[in-house]
Amino acid sequence: MVINMVMTQEMMDGIEKDNVVFLATATTDGTPNVVPIGFARPIDEKTILLVDNYMNKTRKNLEDNPKASLVPRDATKCPYQFKGTVEIHTSGKLFDDAVDWATSVMSKLAPKAAVLLNVEEIYTVQPGPNAGSKVD
Ligand SMILES: Cc1cc2nc3c(=O)[nH]c(=O)nc-3n(C[C@H](O)[C@H](O)[C@H](O)COP(=O)(O)O)c2cc1C
Hints:
alpha+beta, seven-stranded antiparallel β-sheet, binds flavin mononucleotide
């Protein structure tokens, strides 16, 4: 049985307050791609919502290979790497909520999808002897 990691309140607050995360995806043949994403916030202790407004290679990668990883922009304040599998919602309540959030911040946005990262693993990136180890 796989037991997925859950985010602590401190981690969730860190992501929410930072405003930008760096989201890494990969093609099926392993070419990496990383982009800054401003509309990123935890919606519960296991899930991070990302709003697809302008994703291009990122979206294609996620459709072909739903694995993703992200770090908050200011990893000095939130020194964690989150990894998991995404679900892409282009209709329904989660999509509607994503549209409401994005358009309430920037009315000209027309979100294409709510991308939900189901967090499966969390690692510390804090410099030092434990850097890169799994949080448990
Ligand atoms: C500060 C910043 C915040 C951004 N926020 C978002 C976002 O919330 N959603 C989004 O779809 N694209 C966002 N972008 C655009 C993406 O970073 C990127 O340009 C887009 O995904 C296309 O790149 P790709 O082809 O690698 O996917 C943002 C860009 C910057 C510079």
